[in-house]
Amino acid sequence: MSASTTTVKSSYSVSRKKSQWKTIWIRFKKNKMALGGLIVFLLMAAIVLSADLWLDYEQGAMTMDIANAYQSPSAQHIFGTDQYGRDYFTRVVYGGRISMFVGIATVMVSLIFGGLIGATAAYYGGKVDEVLMRLMDVLMAIPSTLLAITIISALGSSLFNLIVAMGVSQIARMARIVRSSVMSVKGQEYIEACRACGTSDARIILRHIIPNALGPVLVQVTQTVARSVITVASLSFVGLGVSEPTPEWGGMLSFAKTQMRYYPYLSLFPGFAVVMSVMSLTLAGDGLRDAMDPRLRN
């Protein structure tokens, strides 16, 4: 098969893929719940990421002012103050930065390692597939939260170790999703054309297979970020995540549970932030999955 034929088939594949993504976006926009979830999450992300432009982290989130401790929400402190007189709104906003950063970092770790493992297993098949998938089965047999707790207990509690633990706990799930997607792509004609032209396996996997198998992976990405946000909050809640004085939603809820009777706002605001971020991502992920479901296409 000539190089020109390969180019034509690759160009056709790219054009067809663009048309599919356009159709998916149109279908996604029709799902009001999913679109609303995406908008809410993007707004939360924009607030968190732009916090340095309009909030003073050191003064609001870190500086103690015992004289102003436990102030109820007011015009000066719209979320009130905590036990050390720190502005609670600033701490909730910057706590979201930690949760979202860990969530995205978890996705990157699981996507890099899980993606390579899944793509390699699907592309080569046979014994390579068998060995890699049995290793992933071992990881899948351990509940992800329990695996993360085990890793953090062994390595110690820190932000870096938290990311490592969360990433490792999601590798097996990501590897299986990528493997399934690659299996559906690797038999396409343009992949066979690349093989016939002598294109290296690494180039075929990285340049042609993985980009064309991204659909289900994107759904998994949204679900992984949502799981990571709530898992990070849970780990911090039990003292295995980010510790004081760094603001983090789970850590803030951990202290607030002892003060709910007298200062309910301490648990209300970080709890609401966790619920909204997880719910918005879940709705967006479900909408994306429905938009990509071939059974829903006309």
TrEMBL record:
Membrane topology category: Multi-pass membrane protein
Protein localization: Cell membrane
Main location: membrane
One Pfam family named in its UniProt record: BPD_transp_1
Record-level GO BP terms: transmembrane transport
Organism for this UniProt entry: Candidatus Enterocloster faecavium
Domain ABC transmembrane type-1: residue ranges: 96-285
Protein name: ABC transporter permease
InterPro entries reported for this sequence: BP-dependent_transpt_permease (IPR050366), MetI-like (IPR000515), MetI-like_sf (IPR035906), OppC_N (IPR025966)
Family (UniProt): Belongs to the binding-protein-dependent transport system permease family.
Domain of life: Bacteria
Spans traversing the lipid bilayer: 98-124, 262-284
CC per GO annotation: plasma membrane
Keyword Transcription regulation carried by entry: no
UniProt keywords, alphabetically: Cell membrane, Membrane, Transmembrane, Transmembrane helix, Transport
